[in-house]
# Entry
Amino acid sequence: MRTLRAWYGAGPTHLLLTVCSFAVAGYAGLRLLGGDVVGLLLWTVGAALLHDLVLVPLYTAADRAVRALDPRRDASWINHVRVPAFVSAVLFVVWSPLILGLSGEVYAAKTGLDPAAFAPRWLLITAALFAASAAVLAARSLIARHRAARGRPPARPGA
Amino acid sequence: MGGKAGRAGRVGAAAEWLRARLREGPPAGPTRPEFWRSPLRGPWLTSVLGLVLLAGTAVVFATGLLSYAAYNPDLAAVNDRTPDKGWLGFYLFAWPTRPHWLYRLTQGVHVTLGIMLVPVLLAKLWSVIPKLFAWPPVRSVAHALERLSVLALVGGGLFVFATGVLNIQLEYVFPGSFYPLHLYGAWVFVGALVLHVGTRMGLVARTLRSRRLRDELRTPAARTTAEPPDGTGLMPPRPAAATMSRRGALGMVGLGSLALLAVTVGQSIGGPLRATALLAPRGGEPGAGPNGFPVNRTAAEAGITAADTGPDWRLTVRGGGREVVLARERLLAMPQHTAALPIACVEGWSTPDQEWSGVRLADLAALVGFPPGAAPDVLVESAQRRGSFGSAALRANQVADPWSLLALRVNGAELSADHGYPARIIVPANPGVHNTKWVTRLTFGDPA
# Structure
């Protein structure tokens, strides 16, 4: 037991679970790799790398850039940018093939529907999200000012 | 001889140098724990996101396996998009015909919930990103295996989500056919998930007991602090001040999921709500009137010509050594039955029940000598020239259902060309692509 821990770095349950997990993933993985091996490794490992080394640094940098505009700690307006930007971004991440019209011709031929409808809709949804966020921020600021004028302690917006 | 010794010496020196670097600690940038600043990162947030993701993944995986069974891949080669599935088809069963909305429900849930999990998946990966750069990269054999498994988990997970999301948008850029990639990818993902859940569940349970959800949801950004250090490597040792509460972060992720639900689910509900599916592929109706509901593949795209469906069109019914050839008038002269059934696609969209009318499949089996109650499996072939699913096999239980029709009319009108004129299959709870359109031949008893 102690030898196993020293050599392996974890207990026997971990070892058994690991073997089970690798066996299932391997059984399916061999079938997955039965096709275009290079393409598949590019897609799976590439997806992880693209996410971890491109997407995450990109949105982190964007977030820090917005935050740098106002270094005050209670700059709670930042969340009124973050939230609509996040929602708009996830809509884009999921529906980008339609929004960018990548499969436009196939889409039109197969479904009989208009592939050009999606980009303007996404832009309008994004506009509506930011407008709603601005309205909430304005309402919160008004309430805070109103309270301050009445001499009550201001409730910090954006929490 | 001297060369060999020199090489061994150099390798030894390199190994010694590497060991020294590893002992010294993280070299730079993201491998240093101080690089990460968000006070929200920590086991509590990761646990909540992980648990939501686990519950959602379980439902999406189960409905995915059901969808695989719904194709009856074990019935005939034409139904089997994954002939090398091996034991991964261990659970297959005769897909039922009732309730008639079954596939509409399971596949609508599979696609819509899968889409809603995307923000949760991205947030979960954000919360654990420091672990990617953990130093030293490998601490033990167990740790090395875990990291390899996490690569399969993250790579496989992103792959399954990506293939699903691309396929429903008809963007076939992935390296191979959708069915094997999505099915085998899902099993790689779930195989890796077994280890991940097994090794983390104890920590998740302890963590969730350590902070009450209700208290956490009442804590504003001003009072949000980092969790106490606990050796999980998730928390920043030098956290910045919080600009968002945990409540805010979870709310933002939830809002992302709800927004995706709002612009998507209409395509699975149909009727007036279809128009609310603003970004989903089937948020529009291709036309108005009795045939105005969505079409999977238009006649033109399937390579159907006017000659294929003109007055010379005939239906050949074979089986038990017999063959009958029928013109459309002969079919219309047979007893006509109606059934209110949906079209439900593997892509997740569906229609409300449409009123189909035509000849029962069981009656067509009787034409070639199969008595009522003894109708066998059937192979259905289409005039379709392009694209997959030009033929499909239906199981005996599907043929026997009184609502299973060779439909000639829909909603009181002739079928349109896009909906399969002169005749199409409609079977309750059947995946859309197995409701073959532009049918030319039925072979009973031999669905090979």
The first helix of chain A runs from residue 2 to 8. The mean pLDDT of chain A is 90. The helical segments of chain A are 2-8, 12-32, 37-68, 77-99, 104-111, 118-149.
